[in-house]
Amino acid sequence: MAQLQPVRGTHDLLPEDERRHRAVIDTARQTAGRYGFERVETPIFEFTEVFTRTVGETSDIVTKEMYVFEDRGGESIALRPEGTAGVARAVISNGLAQNLPLKMFYNGPMFRYERPQKGRQRQFHQIGMELIGPTTPLADVEVISCGADILDNLGILSRVQLELNTLGDIASRNAYRAALVEYFSAFRDKLSEDSKLRLEKNPLRILDSKDEGDRVFVKDAPTFEQYLSNEAKDFFGGVTRGLDTIGIPYTLAPRLVRGLDYYTHTCFEFVTTELGAQGTVMAGGRYDGLIRDMGGPDIAGVGWAAGIERLSMMLGFEPEVARPLVLVPLGEAAETEALKLAHQLRKAGHTVDVGFSGNLKKRLMRANKLKATKAIILGEDELAKGVAAVRDLDSGEQAEVALTDLLRHLG
Length: 411
Description:
Blueprint: H1 15-34, E1 38-39, E2 45-47, H2 49-52, H3 60-65, E3 68-70, E4 76-79, H4 84-93, E5 102-111, E6 123-133, H5 137-153, E7 161-166, H6 170-185, H7 193-201, H8 212-218, H9 230-245, E8 251-252, E9 264-271, E10 280-286, H10 290-293, E11 300-307, H11 308-314, E12 325-329, H12 332-347, E13 352-354, H13 360-369, E14 374-378, H14 380-385, E15 387-392, E16 398-402, H15 406-410
Helix pairs in contact: 1-5, 1-11, 5-9
Domain Aminoacyl-transfer RNA synthetases class-II family profile: 1-329
Pfam family, one: tRNA-synt_His
Catalytic activity: tRNA(His) + L-histidine + ATP = L-histidyl-tRNA(His) + AMP + diphosphate + H(+)
């Protein structure tokens, strides 16, 4: 019988990886909390329509990557490929539009069927935040600022670069769309099959094409800046002035469009050169029409998401591990006493590991491997005297401590 393996594109979070993973989540949640964001959690699967209506029918996520299945009731269900659409659906389902502004932070697994590589898995994890309601550019500045603070607190900010662009308002987008259709139509026969489809449905997505043949034509395509309305220019100016005011550096990236169809106005990415081809560590933008297009009220939104796996690979510090006390009982009577003592110590707030087997030398070697602070040795002699031998594993010093005084001695 073949040995069971994880499904391709999934991975086990063993303790060391999980500590880094958890450090990213906890740091992000605490930082977001200082901005007033509260954690929410949406289901990991939704009706497929939640994503096809929002992410975009021509996006790679919908056409190639989404895990879709029919449940026993005949409903079409999709594992969530990203977080924003589910949060937007929750706003509608729960009638939250009466409580604006909404500040939501989330974390959890996402699923996309794509070629696994460094920093990209089929089951991956994200943190993200959504600020729903405000229409001012200051809201965009706030979510970017919070994202930058999270990266800074993770020890990553100095190793990434913020790239910034605007996708304009509806009038700007329509004008730019017409210009792109005219430009790319001249090369229709030379475009990839995906981009031929995008030319009909969403030509802006050609700018995001990874096909090398498409890239040849993309480099000379019209830029959005040429088609921005005055209102769109003013909005983007408010964003850049806000970032300048609080000292967050950025690079203007006129080809940055993002891969999801619901973005308007601001779009941005924090990118790095440390992860090879998967250089984006945090990305997002404004999506003012999303909730309306899902059948909800016409309310604005702006947010971002970041891959936890990529952030954990770049983490600028080693997560702290609680250093335990190790109990070393020698003999059956000592094991009974150790059970009671371990329970008391844990109730008092100590992290306690009990060495169950092996001679004294092996158990102390394990204690050192666990980076324990102290080994509490209980043998027949110690029990007869009503004491424990407490060895400080940093200094090597050892002393006998009365069992009745052990809790006070350990603090």
